[in-house]
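Structure first, sequence second, as always.
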């Protein structure tokens, strides 16, 4: 008979067997249809997801969008190896456990005639998912008392930390930041190519940023992160420093210290936090790229917004075909 076991384990690092002296990891492991889920102390009580669903009616499209939101939330709780074919498994689990796990949702844009497509922002309760797994008996016993059990637990916990951190960081440019065109004007010219000045603003979604910072604060506490001088730093900790705030002064911003214990985890965080913001101007296909905040990274973007200006040049004949101008994240220049 399978039973619920609460795992209490210390993280092991390096090639030896020494136990790191930092807060004890508490995690509960569940296996549902062959997929292992982990609920550690740092898992947020609810996961905010933006998803899209389609259907013959608006109501059906919204229902499918809710299923997609639950499926995405389940994805960040997975610690077993999930292959492409498991997407259907996760969808089946999302449908099976969908009742009552969405705390709230907002319907955004719905479009389409014969078939509707709706975008929603849903708050999926990780706490309710865990309770549903537990009440359904969908749990697996994992022994965290011996050294191998501690290794498995620490490996899964680090993997889940990385997965959750990547979820927040990868969504910054999808739902965490907003783009707004402030003005568009054609500059005077007699040349054959017409210069067009586009002023726009990149700004944080405050709720997303606050949720992300709360998660990373919990991660700092969970990993025992703290300020370390250059001489005191342990290479095996792979500590990442996350600077956040809205002050132009580096000194006035606050910092979090997260021990990742994994180089791939550290490199992933660095690539998202310190990579340039790239904005594509449609339909011109032009790209604007800039550093969000020198050295500090994207979470320290001054006043939580960035004012930008880009000038594009186009053939007058092409301008006759343009009815709208839009902005989107991501380009290849």
């Amino acid at each position: 008979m399978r039973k619920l076991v609460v795992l209490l384990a210390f993280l092991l690092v390096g090639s030896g067997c020494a136990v790191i002296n930092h807060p004890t990891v508490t995690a509960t492991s569940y296996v549902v249809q062959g997929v292992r889920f982990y609920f550690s102390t740092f898992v947020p009580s609810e996961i905010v997801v933006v998803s899209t669903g389609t259907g013959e009616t608006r109501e059906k499209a919204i229902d499918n969008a809710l299923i997609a939101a639950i499926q995405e939330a389940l994805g960040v709780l997975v610690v077993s190896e999930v292959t492409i074919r498991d997407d259907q498994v996760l969808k089946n689990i999302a449908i099976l456990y969908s009742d009552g796990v969405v705390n709230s949702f907002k319907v955004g844009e719905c479009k389409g005639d014969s078939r509707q497509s709706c975008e929603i922002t849903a708050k999926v309760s990780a706490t309710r998912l865990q309770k549903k797994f537990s009440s359904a008996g969908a749990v697996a016993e994992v022994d965290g008392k011996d050294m191998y059990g501690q290794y498995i637990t620490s490996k899964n916990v680090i993997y889940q930390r990385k997965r959750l951190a990547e979820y927040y960081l990868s969504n910054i440019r999808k739902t965490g930041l907003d783009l707004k065109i402030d003005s568009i004007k054609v500059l005077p010219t007699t040349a054959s190519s017409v210069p067009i000045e586009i002023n726009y603003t990149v700004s944080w979604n405050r709720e997303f940023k606050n949720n992300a910072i709360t998660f990373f604060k919990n991660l700092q506490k969970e990993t025992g992160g703290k300020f370390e001088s250059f001489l005191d730093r342990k290479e095996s900790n792979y500590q990442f420093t996350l600077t956040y705030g809205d002050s132009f002064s580096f000194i006035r911003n606050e910092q979090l210290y997260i021990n990742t214990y994994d180089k791939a985890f550290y490199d992933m965080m660095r690539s998202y936090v310190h990579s340039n913001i790239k904005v594509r101007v449609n339909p011109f296909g032009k790209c604007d790229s800039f550093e969000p905040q020198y050295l500090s990274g994207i979470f320290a973007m001054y006043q939580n917004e960035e004012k930008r200006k880009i000038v594009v040049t186009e053939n007058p004949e092409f301008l006759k075909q343009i009815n709208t101008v839009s902005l989107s994240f991501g380009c290849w220049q």
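Margin note: The helical segments are 58-75, 86-96, 126-135, 147-170, 172-176, 206-222, 263-274, 316-319.
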